[in-house]
Amino acid sequence: MTSRLPKLIAFDLDYTLWDLWIDTHIDPPIRRPGDAVNELRDRYNHRIAFYRDVGEILHRLREGGVTIAAASRTHAPDLARQALGLLLVPPPPGHKGEAPTPAIQFFDQLEIYPGSKIKHFKELHKKTGLPYSEMLFFDDEHRNKEVESLGVTFCLVPSGVNDRSFEQGLAEWRRRHPVEVTEDAPGGDAAGLE
Ligand SMILES: [Mg+2]
């Protein structure tokens, strides 16, 4: 059985997808060294890269038809957008020969501006028409858990997104939104839910 995914998954940027604050640690201009994959450099050669598992997770979500969003309260929204446009995500495993993809192409929605993330999610709801119950959000800062007041599932990732924290978030979302069983299930599954 394939595992259910929420219709929208949103990610914070700083310390959730990369290990820096784009507005305080990075000095423009930023550039990609040649064809480097998952690597940018700023004026002082400070490196910008996604955490190790992020690329594969983005591929998986796109494959699964999930709407992908970025929700960041950075004070440098233009720089953040520029970084997403320049940063290359390697092709998924088993597609080694294929060209890498600019990170920004994975994101269907970008809500990047300072302020409470309640606003970011209200905008996501308005723009996508998706219910909050279909939204899962990964963020490294506890204060942003306030989006749960809307009905979004919040997953705190103090060490950023990796395979393990991502699966934990999915598991929590599935726990909160169990499948409504409408068919006769022969044996196993239905009994196991009790
Ligand atoms: Mg953050």
TrEMBL record:
Segments crossing the lipid bilayer: none
Recorded superkingdom: Eukaryota
Protein name: Magnesium-dependent phosphatase-1
Record-linked InterPro entries: HAD-like_sf, HAD_sf, HAD_SF_ppase_IIIC, MDP-1_euk, MDP_1_eu_arc
Pfam families with a match to the protein in the record: Acid_PPase (PF12689)
NCBIfam families in alphabetical order: HAD-SF-IIIC, MDP-1
Molecular functions per Gene Ontology: acid phosphatase activity
Gene3D superfamilies the UniProt entry points to: HAD superfamily/HAD-like (3.40.50.1000)
